[in-house]
Amino acid sequence: MQRSDRKVVLRLRGIHRLYKVGVERIHALNGIELEIGENEYVAVMGKSGSGKSTLMNILGCLDRPTGGSYELDGKDTQKLSDGQLAKIRNEQIGFVFQSFELLGKLNAITNVAMPLIYSKGGWIDRKKKAIAVLERVGLADRVKHKPNQLSGGEKQRVAIARALVCNPSIVLADEPTGNLDTKTSDDILNLFDRLHSEGQTIIMVTHEESVAKHAHRIITMKDGVIVSDVEGDKFRESLSGDRAVPDA
Amino acid sequence: MLRFLLMPLYVLRFLTQSISIATGQIWSNRTRSVLTVIGIIIGVAAVIQVIAALSGLKAKVLTDLETFGTNNIYMWPHWPEGRQLSYEQVRFKPETFEGMLDKCPSVNKFGLGNWIGQNSVRYADKSAEGVRVVGIEPDYHIVEKRPVVEGRAFTVIDEMQALPVCKVGQDLQEKLNLPKDCTGEIIIVGNRMFRIVGVMEKRPQLSVIGQGGEGRDDFEVVIPYRTGLKMSNDAWTWGIAEAKSTELVEEAQAEIKFFLRKVRNIRPGQEDTFNVESVSSHIQKFKQISMVITLVAGCIVGISLVVGGVGIMNIMLVSVSERTREIGLRKAIGAKKSAIMMQFLIEAIVLCLFGGLIGVGLAELITLGIVKSAPILNQTYIPGWAILIAFGFSCMVGIIFGLFPAIKAARLDPIEALRHE
Q1: Chain A: nearest CA to B306, how far in angstroms?
Q2: Same domain for B215 and B328?
Q3: Residue B209 located in a structural domain
Q4: Pairing of β A201-206 and β A217-222
Q5: CA distances (Å), B115 to each of A233, B20, B256, in order?
Q6: Which residues contact B284 (CB under 8 A, 6 or more apart)?
Q7: Which residue has the higher pLDDT, A239 or B124?
Q8: A217 bridge partner residues
Q9: Which of A85, A97, B30, B221 is the 20 to 30 Å CA partner of B328?
């Protein structure tokens, strides 16, 4: 499927993010133009300080740009109130964090069901919905476990289940494998691949090429601007010169 | 539409959810929580205790007052200021009250009494000095609820024929060494002979107000009103009336006043030449005053709750900073500011109510101790409203002192919060 055929989920026009530190002005984002369509699997790469985290925060409606416009599902987020942004985070965005961010006192079901507490219709059948997504990420036998009884990979699966429980338009993953060993990382990335094949739109921030190569589109950032935006195949080709890519 | 109808259900579930999160939080930090709420515990216990002790004292005084009879109305002559009136113009006479029962539908019964004076009384070789001699109409003691323990009360015949009969008090009976059943015996009051028809029950002792000093003998002889009038024609006369019910006391008082003003031709604007008062109106006043005192004392003690509240605020601030990442996460997954605020506010309130509960328990224990150890406060009890107030105050302290930490939590920037270590 060509990118142009897809329905556009998010559209960024001339996004700027300016931080003022004392008298210094730091352009974390300097005019980002970006369109991401439905069921795309995008990796955002860049060194630390490149602005990829800032971009992630804006895409996730945790932060507002100081300039430009950001449309999500055709809605201009600029005009929305804090409460409405919270609603969008709840209903349209699923976050996956590097350090999982599970609540230690709650078991897997309650952790996964947490976003439903804050959604209007989500109240009903919270447990059922939570168990269903936990099954989807392959944790059917761990639903009553608390985070300290789970391995790192299992914790991240619970976190992914939590991101999926409200059927979001996009899943935003910030270094989802940063705290995991190679083997577990592969498991998690395979899970992302599967979710993508099931139709999920995924945007992932990473600085590791081995992680980024799972994506079908790779965006590289530097100093607050996008320096390259390539198809996954081309990215893998460019890598193959350096080292062997097993699944290419 | 359905969503709208289900709204209360959502709110309820949100509340139960928040409360269960809060109790979970408190339970997992139980030592800290208990230490935190000690201020609230002491505050609540102190407030309830003060209210309980004062309520007990009030109950004691009220019991005393009620021995006078709550339905009773007392009437006596009164010289208004500024008008020169003679004794003859002001004094009560039997004619004054003719037809009163017909004109005053809220009055059940009434009787007159007159003061004959203090006399010496003799029986055989015994005598007693300073005996109070009072004349009464037959209904007087019915209204006053003073039954006889021997013999009979006065009858209309005793009254109408002004017979030389009398009733004596139990103290006097003892003093004169009268036989147990002394009806028919003749005693000499002053220089007149009276036949005893009955022995009156002792008046109940009043514990708080007191009555002319405790342990003093209460020698009295009661004769029919008209017999007394024959002995001293210008004797001081007063009246006692009974309202049909406690609710009708004020009504009855007003009717009597209206009746007496009419009989005495008092023009509008002129002061009454009589007093009409009831125990219940005094009880009412007393209740109001004691309520004010109780509330003022409660409020003063309630200041300790504020101290407790500061402890709550402190621990809530600690809780907010400990759970900064959790707050960041909750915001990221869609919790609105209000939801975060409610979560922490409810936690503070639950903490305070928990302290309030223990405080009430403590107050119950102290009350038990007071009742057992202090006789004058043996009617100490915790009124239901005191418990409600204590809980209300704890709740308020929770809201007031939980508000600042809750707002602080709600205002956290999710990005910063998630980066917090």
Answers
A1: 32
A2: no
A3: yes
A4: unpaired
A5: 122, 73, 22
A6: none
A7: B124
A8: A42, A231
A9: B30
What SS3 state is found at B148? strand
| Residue of A178, A174, A25 lying closest to A95 (CA atoms) | A174
Q: Which two tokens stand for residue B177?
A: 């060494």
Provide the 10 A C-beta neighbour count for residue B202. 12
Instruction: Give CA angle at B304 (B300, B309), nearest 5°.
Output: 130
Could you tell me if A19 lies within 8 Å of chain B, comparing CB atoms?
no
Touching check for A162 and chain B: CB below 8 Å?
yes
Q: Does A69 touch chain B (CB under 8 A)?
A: no
| Greatest pairwise CA separation for chain B in angstroms | 107
SS3 content of chain A, % helix, strand, coil (to 5): 40, 30, 35
For residues B376-391, one letter each, b for 16 or more C-beta atoms within 10 angstroms of the residue's C-beta and e for the rest, the string is: ebebbebbeebbebbb
Record: contact A121-B3, CB cut-off 8 A: yes
Residue of B nearest to A90 (CA): B334
Give per-residue pLDDT as tens, B333-348. 999 998 899 889 999 9
Identify which of B17, B24, B334 has the shortest CB distance to residue A115: B334
CA angle B90, B96, B100 (to 5 degrees): 135
pLDDT in tens, A170-209: 999 999 998 899 999 999 999 999 999 999 999 999 988 8
Please tell me which of the candidates A57, A90, A123 has its beta carbon nearest to residue B334: A90
Asked if residue B333 and residue B240 are part of one domain, the reply reads: no
The answer to the question of residue B93 being in a domain is yes
Q: Does residue A144 have a pLDDT over 80? A: yes
> A24 vs chain B: nearest CA distance in angstroms?
20
For B142-174, the pLDDT digits (tens) are 888 888 998 999 999 999 999 999 999 988 998
Examine the domain organization and report whether B28 and B115 are in the same domain.
Answer: no
Report the pLDDT value the prediction gives residue B381, as an integer from 0 to 100: 86
Cα dihedral sign, B405-B406-B411-B417: positive
Alpha-carbon span A193 to A213, nearest angstrom: 11
Q: Please report the domains of chain A, with CATH numbers, ordered by start residue.
A: 3-240 (3.40.50.300)
Residues B75, A158: Cα–Cα separation, whole Å: 86
Regarding whether B384 and B264 lie in a shared domain, the answer is no
The count of other CB atoms within 10 Å of the CB of residue A224 is: 23
Do B227 and B333 lie in a common domain? no
* Tokens read off for A91: 């209903």
CA distance B60 to B82: 40
ipTM for the whole complex: 0.91
Q: Which of B333, B413, B421 to mutate to test the interface with A (most CBs of A within 10 A)?
A: B333
Mean pLDDT by 10 residues, chain B (421 residues): 73 78 82 90 90 87 78 90 84 89 92 91 89 92 88 93 93 89 91 93 65 59 93 90 89 92 88 88 85 88 87 92 93 91 90 91 91 82 87 89 94 92 78
Model confidence at A244, pLDDT cuts 50, 70, 90, reads very low
- Give me the pLDDT at residue B314, please: 92
Are B210 and B302 within one domain?
Answer: no
Does residue A243 or residue B16 have the better pLDDT?
B16
Confidence (pLDDT) at B214: 43
User: What mean pLDDT value characterizes chain A?
Assistant: 89
Domain count for chain B, please give it.
Answer: 2
**pTM of the complete model:** 0.71
Domain-located, residue B267: yes
Tell me which amino acid residue B108 is.
N
Domain for residue B232, yes or no?
yes
Q: Tell me, yes or no, whether B256 and B361 share the same domain.
A: no
Query: Which residue range(s) make up the domain with B46?
Result: 16-64+285-419
Closest Cα in chain A to B3: A121
CA-atom Rg of chain A in angstroms? 18
